[in-house]
Design a protein that fits this description.
five-stranded mixed barrel, two-stranded antiparallel sheet
Length: 101
């Protein structure tokens, strides 16, 4: 599992039949120790209703096909959680901005 930030969306009108109706998001990985973006962005299927700017958890490979949304689909990256906060060594290093506040 990895953490990343949603950077944008991908729209595709022509795609494999099993991908119809799935939302595609661009996710940039985050280094948990430094909280800096690292590595190349990836395209992931959204299984949880994530949006641009949110910190998310992703899985890849066969794990990416273990959600109700992605079961038996040709996917290799899936967003499986929207992160509320992250604590490392007793210190909160990330807390989701509450839009209702």
């Amino acid at each position: 599992m990895n953490l990343g930030i949603v950077k944008g969306t991908v729209v595709s009108t022509n795609k494999a039949e099993k991908l119809y109706g799935l939302k595609l998001l661009i996710v940039k990985p985050i280094d948990i120790e430094t909280w800096q973006e690292k590595g190349a962005p990836v395209v992931a299927i959204d299984a949880v209703g994530a949006g641009e700017g949110e910190v998310v958890m992703t899985v890849s490979g066969s794990s990416s096909r273990q959600t109700i949304v992605t079961e038996n689909k040709p996917v290799d990256q899936t967003i499986i959680a929207i992160i509320d906060h992250v604590d490392v060594n007793g210190k909160r290093i990330f807390e989701k901005f509450n839009k209702e506040s």
